[in-house]
Design brief:
By secondary structure, the protein is of the alpha/beta class. The protein has helices spanning 23-42, 54-66, 76-99, 138-148, 175-183, 215-226, 257-265, 274-286, 300-304, 315-321, and strands at 4-9, 46-51, 108-111, 115-117, 130-136, 151-154, 160-164, 171-172, 186-189, 196-200, 206-208, 230-235, 241-242, 250-251, 254-255, 291-296, 310-312. The strands form five sheets. The protein has a six-stranded mixed beta sheet, with helices on both faces. It has a four-stranded mixed beta sheet with strand order 8-4-10-11. Strands 5-7-6 form a three-stranded antiparallel beta sheet. The structure holds adenosine-5'-diphosphate and magnesium ion.
């Protein structure tokens, strides 16, 4: 049986830590990422791709700020859309190049600029937590807080940084289009950077908001709404660990949502990095998904085959595996 997989790519799929972020660096990383995705297609998996955008949207925000005396700066939702287009372009081209000469039935890459609906009453709007854009001095930050009503915080001694709300993703606005493309065997790249956050007003119209949706949580929505069998989060560690980086560190192989919740409550997963991944995979299984995986990018196919990565399954499924 062919299995449908939604793959969420982490930051390392586009930019390695320590790199500056030139186009050449990013394209080189994207090319090796494309190879991993093509390996999955060659093995017969049906794939939808989503990805992060942290460093890229950060750079776009800086460009906007720096150029604001010359051209009008764009709001954050537009910057998010720009980053989806930029990364989508690189992925589509790299995938197409990588597929040259390979006998794959279909799977023409295409990128969907995606809006994701959030609840205007989401408690996150009252408590912005996600740092974005450039670092500023205290004086500059204060000016922005007064003039624009933005929220800025001192970020671990490195300077002042704007924080925006990180609301929960509710629904993918372009899901019908994504489903049709997928059914016609297009390799869809969607919901980049967690999607462009929008709210639906009483009259049914949508409007962009200044916020950032977590890409792993949006990936879960995408997996659910596209009817995926497997939701796989690819990152720069081989598995989820408890006691991460401590002498008694233990990598998890097969776990249930309930076991992960217990570890989560014990504080094993870092906020903003592993914690949202764990929350996303728990949700996928609790919402009826078959299998979720957290694995390292370069062992994606092996993780799909169950040979590595942390596999998250229901209690029933776990007892049949072990
Ligand atoms: P991505 O861009 O893939 O979302 P993140 O940096 O957000 O990457 O999350 C992956 C990071 O989470 C790993 O590099 C690791 O340092 C960190 N991490 C925190 N807690 C854990 C844990 N319990 N197990 C594994 N990795 C963890
Ligand atoms: Mg992350």
């Amino acid at each position: 049986m062919t299995e449908k997989v939604v793959v969420a790519l982490g930051g390392n799929a586009i930019l390695q830590s320590g790199q500056e972020g030139t186009f050449e660096e990013q394209m080189e990383n994207v090319q090796s990422t494309a190879m991993q995705i093509v390996r999955m297609l060659e093995a017969g998996y049906e794939v939808v791709v989503t990805h992060g955008n942290g460093p890229q949207v950060g750079a776009i925000l800086i460009q906007n700020e720096a150029g604001s005396n010359l051209v009008p700066p764009m709001p954050m939702d537009v910057c998010g859309a720009e980053s989806q287009g930029m990364i989508g372009y690189m992925l589509c081209q790299a995938l197409r190049n990588c597929m040259l000469g390979k006998k794959l039935k279909g799977w023409e890459p295409c990128c969907v600029v995606t809006q994701v609906e959030v609840d205007p009453d989401d408690p996150a709007f009252a408590n912005p937590t996600k740092p974005v854009g450039p670092f500023y001095t205290a004086e500059e930050a204060e000016k922005r807080m007064i003039e624009k009503g933005e929220v800025w915080i001192e970020d671990s001694g490195r300077g002042w940084r704007r924080v925006v709300p990180s609301p929960d993703p509710k629904h993918i606005v372009e899901i019908e289009g994504i489903r049709h493309l997928f059914d016609e065997r297009f390799l869809v790249i969607a919901c980049g950077g967690g999607g462009i956050p929008v709210i639906k007003k009483k009259d049914g119209t949508y409007q962009g908001v200044e916020a950032v949706i977590d890409k792993d949580l949006a990936g879960e929505r995408l997996a659910q709404e596209v009817g995926a069998d497997i939701f796989m989060i690819l990152t720069d560690v081989p598995k989820v660990a408890i006691n991460f980086k401590k002498p008694n560190e233990k990598w998890l192989d097969v776990v249930t949502p309930k076991e992960l919740r217990a570890y989560e409550a014990e504080g094993h997963f870092k906020t903003g990095s592993m914690e949202p991944k764990v929350e996303a995979v728990i949700r996928f299984i609790e919402n009826g998904g078959k299998r979720a995986i957290v694995a390292k990018l370069d062992s994606a196919l092996e993780a799909l085959k169950g040979e590595t990565g942390t596999q998250i399954v229901s209690v029933k499924e776990k007892s049949s595996i072990l």
